[in-house]
Amino acid sequence: xxxxxxxxxxxxxxxxxxxxxxxxxxxxxxxxMIRSPRLIAIALxxxxxxxxxxxxxxxxxxxxRGLSLPVLRGVVSFFEMLGIGLNALTYSANVAASDGCDTxxxxxxxxxxALLFVVSFVLGVGLFVFLPMAFATLAGLTNHPVAYxxxxxxxxxxxxxxxxxxxxxxxxxxxxFAYHGAEHKAVAAFESGLDSELTAETARRFSRFHPRCGTSxxxxxxxxxxxxxxxxxxxxxxxxxxxxxxxTRFLLHLACLPVVAGFGYEVLKATGKSRNSRWAxxxxxxxxWLQRLTTREPDDDQLSVAIAAVCAAVGLxxxxxxxxxxxx
Length: 328
Description:
This protein is of the alpha+beta class. The protein contains ten helices and seven strands. The chain has helices at 60-63, 72-98, 111-138, 145-167, 171-191, 200-203, 214-240, 246-273, 278-294, 300-314; strands at 8-10, 24-28, 31-35, 39-46, 49-56, 197-199, 318-319. The strands form two sheets. A four-stranded antiparallel sheet has the order 2-3-4-5. Helix 3 packs across helix 8, helix 4 packs antiparallel against helix 7 and helix 8 (246-273) crosses helix 9.
């Protein structure tokens, strides 16, 4: 079979200075989703080639001025991106299941998929929230808020690292991680201000690690949670006259999780804007190290999919390649 032509987009007819470079994305099953301030683009690899779907998008914080306040916008973005990501992942799974057929594909979550999501969410909360707190309680740290949350946070990080390492051994997850790397490279190439062409060849030169990655966000949330929960536990002890028990602590921490995510969002946003400063590099390093577990070096086929998604999301013209064989 003749080698596939690379997916590429050119900005020769586009004023790049008018484009908002605030783009982000997510790896999907055999594809990539990219979100810009104006559009969401989903590019997927099928037996017939690369298919791209775009949808209009304006985030809630931009539509409701009151929701754009610091921290609050992070809380809103947390839930908004959770919904968008779930829909995109569902859509990519349905496309993969259709195997390139012409049957219309929906991204609406079915009752069975919703139930699976709920079960997964409960298991995730139990594994990453309740279990570390249970270990900290068994360690006898209930009356020491700082030590308690440092211990629980350390356990949470270790459990998270083991989880990422374990799922990274699964072949299908490895491919998703490779698309994750492709997403980072394509976004970084676009953000660098390439003024001629964005191709697999040019994107390949960039790192698969990106400071605004969701993996970095998760790490920042864990770090912020240690300080935030230590304060909430201390306040509870002052007003209640005693330290919270395991059940009370669990419910309190779970209720405050969106606020913690909001603070983590602000830290991530600040490091993204000041990525070349020394303090931002130090803050970003742990998240970048963690991406060694959540990304893989992509091949040209995967880079082509990511480039198609970036081009569609920011409105750049592109040349689409013909059918490409799916990598083994």
